[in-house]
Write a structure and sequence with these properties.
Chain B: It is found in: Cell membrane. Chain B: InterPro entries: ABC_transp_permease_HisMQ, MetI-like, MetI-like_sf. The complex is a heterodimer. Chain A is mainly α. Chain A contains nine helices and two strands. In chain A, helix 2 crosses helix 5 and helix 8 packs antiparallel against helix 9. The relative contact order of chain B is 0.11. Chain B has helices at residues 13-21, 24-58, 63-78, 81-104, 133-166, 169-177, 182-212, 224-232, 247-276, 283-292, and strands at residues 113-114, 117-118. The longest helix of chain B has 35 residues, at 24-58. Classes of the chains: A mainly alpha, B mainly alpha. Chains A and B meet through helix 3, helix 4, helix 7, helix 8 and helix 9 of A and helix 3, helix 4, strand 2, helix 5 and helix 7 of B.
């Protein structure tokens, strides 16, 4: 079988398009590269969506944690503590067991005039269940980063906004939020990198890979188990993730440039590596 | 455990629960919390040693060694740690068996990789197939510890490398002015001073290490995640203590355990930071002096 044929068969295997059976004997390098690359679709899916949704919740959480009102601050603090203080691995298991225990027939919702049945079985699937966990998890980590940035906004900036007569939403949208993002961005870049790395945990933590549709590491460990040779599939995964990391760094670097475009060249903050890893 | 536990089917309510929670399998479950603590206590110094070596290599004057150190410290940035946890024990196991095979069976003719098999002569197996079960388990645990030490060593190397650079340059120049050799200046001046700078990064690393311990489950060690799944799964009436699917409660227990452990570490580490910054010429040290005055 030629390599082109393999790519046609397996390039979209992880989302269920193409050959149904995974290769079983005579594994070629081309098969491994294609199938592992196909699994990377899931890593990008989980990472990108969790990051996108998590960004908005994180802003809300950071603002809530900085709130002077006890009833708003405490839930945000507990949310952050809960997700940052426990391993992501355990969170995945816990979420999966919770979703499994939901009634299979769905939950009856009584809206007074009409009764609807909310289906729950899709929550036990990785595409939804794991995404929810990753979304809440990254929101907690990012919320803490944003909270730290919020507290280090220079007082002069806020005084200047006050002097211009800005209040409430205008002040937040024009001064506080952009400054917060600018200060948080280097740390947030690292968070994004490690969120993408954390997506490799999904298929090893309770959520089953339905019809063998898994992520990059799932296929790599499939090949390692079948060929009993870890020295080919794992370096392939490593290569893919190094590329993915470089893409993230350059994308976030572009946004960082835009956030800092009003500053003189020398004071611009560069993105630096800080290990804030495994959840 | 208790005398009335001999016939579980006759028990009700609280006494059932008391017997259930103290049966043999639960004792193994509680023991596995010890496994996690042992892992933490072995891995932390091992990772620190790896990290120290990595940091020294990364600032070595010898170019290939420096490349090696830089590669080691930056590999954890681009590659998911879970890939390492799956790869390292697997690769180490085969590597060790291959070396033993070369040493013990020099006149073995057949290739080691035959299709999808990895074949070494039986005396080169590690551990030997005749060894008892506990040797296999200990060996698996040892490989897991090594995987953790290698990955966390890379993180620690990053932290220590930064801390070594943070020690004021004037300190090293003073050492040179006193006529100390490079080696003396390193061990007598740089190393004692770098810990204050390394502490925030290292305490962060400790928290991460705590949160990485459930990954032992992926390495086939019978740890707390293994037992929580095992004990929590629904048990039919052929078991002594039948119950429905309780995995949720077991995992809630694990969650509380980890939250407690991270909270406790946070408290201890902040106390330690306070103690170490006492009298230091840093912002934290200044704040302490002002508070006392």
């Amino acid at each position: 079988m030629s390599c082109l044929q393999t790519i046609q068969d397996y390039a979209l295997r992880s989302i269920g398009i193409g050959e149904r059976l995974l290769p079983r004997t005579d594994f070629t390098l081309c098969e491994q590269v294609t199938l592992i690359g196909s699994g990377l679709i899931w890593n990008v899916y989980f990472g990108a969506l969790a990051l996108l949704f998590g960004f908005f919740l994180a802003t809300a959480v950071a603002l809530a944690k900085a709130s002077p009102v006890w009833a708003i601050r405490k839930p945000a603090e507990w949310f952050i503590f809960l997700f940052r203080g426990s391993p992501l691995f355990i969170q995945f298991f816990l979420a999966y067991e919770t979703f499994v225990l939901l009634p299979k027939s769905g939950i009856e919702l009584n809206l007074g005039f009409i009764e609807i049945t909310a289906a729950t079985s899709w929550l036990t699937r990785a595409w939804a269940g794991a995404l929810i966990v990753l979304f809440l998890n990254t929101a907690a980590y990012t919320g803490e980063i944003f909270y730290g940035a919020l507290r280090s906004i220079p007082r002069g900036d806020i005084e200047a906004a006050d002097a211009y007569g800005m209040t409430g939403l205008t002040k937040f949208r024009r001064v506080i939020w952009p400054t917060m993002l600018r200060l948080a961005w280097p740390a947030y870049t690292n968070e994004a990198i490690f969120l993408f790395h954390a997506t490799t945990l999904v298929y090893f933590s309770g959520f089953p890979a339905w019809k063998q549709k898994g992520d990059a590491l799932y296929y790599a460990s499939y090949f390692a188990d079948k060929t009993f040779n870890p020295f080919i599939p794992y370096p392939i995964v490593a290569g893919y993730f190094i590329l993915l990391t470089l893409v993230i760094i350059s994308l976030f670097g572009l946004i960082n440039r835009r956030l800092n475009r009003h500053l003189p060249q020398a004071t611009r903050s560069r993105i630096r590596f800080k290990p804030q890893v495994i959840r | 455990m208790f005398s009335y536990c001999s016939d579980p089917s006759s028990l009700e309510g609280f006494s059932w629960l008391a017997c259930y929670l103290t049966n043999g399998k639960h004792m193994a479950f509680y023991g596995s919390f010890g496994v996690v603590m042992v892992l933490l206590l072995i891995t932390a110094p091992a990772a620190l040693a790896f990290g120290f070596g990595g940091a020294i290599a990364a600032r070595s004057a010898f170019l290939p060694l420096r490349w090696f150190g830089k590669a080691y410290t930056s590999m954890v940035r681009g590659i998911p740690d879970i890939a390492f946890f799956l790869f390292v024990p697997f690769a180490l196991d085969q590597g060790i068996e291959w070396l033993r095979h070369k040493a013990k069976c020099p006149d073995w003719e057949e290739p080691i990789r035959q299709g999808s098999d990895f074949v070494v002569c039986s005396v080169a197996k590690m551990p030997l197939s005749s060894s008892p079960q506990w040797v296999h388990e200990t060996y698996g645990f040892f490989l897991a510890v090594l995987a953790f030490a290698i990955v966390f060593g890379a993180f620690a190397a990053n932290v220590l490398f930064g801390a070594m650079k943070a020690v004021p340059r004037a300190q090293m120049e003073t050492a040179e002015a006193y006529g100390m050799t490079d080696r003396q200046a390193f061990w007598r001046i740089l190393v004692p001073q770098m810990w204050v700078y390394a502490l925030p990064g290292l305490s962060n690393l400790w928290m991460i290490l705590i949160k990485a311990t459930p990954l032992l489950f992926l390495l086939g060690v019978e740890d707390i995640v293994y037992w929580a799944r095992e004990l929590g799964g629904a048990k039919t009436s052929i078991f002594a203590y039948p119950h429905p699917d309780w995995r949720l409660y077991y995992f809630l227990g694990l969650l509380v355990f980890y939250l407690g452990l991270t909270k406790l570490s946070e408290m201890v580490l902040s106390r330690l930071t306070y103690r170490l910054s006492h009298g230091q010429a840093t912002m934290a040290g200044d704040a302490q002096r002002k508070a006392a005055a």
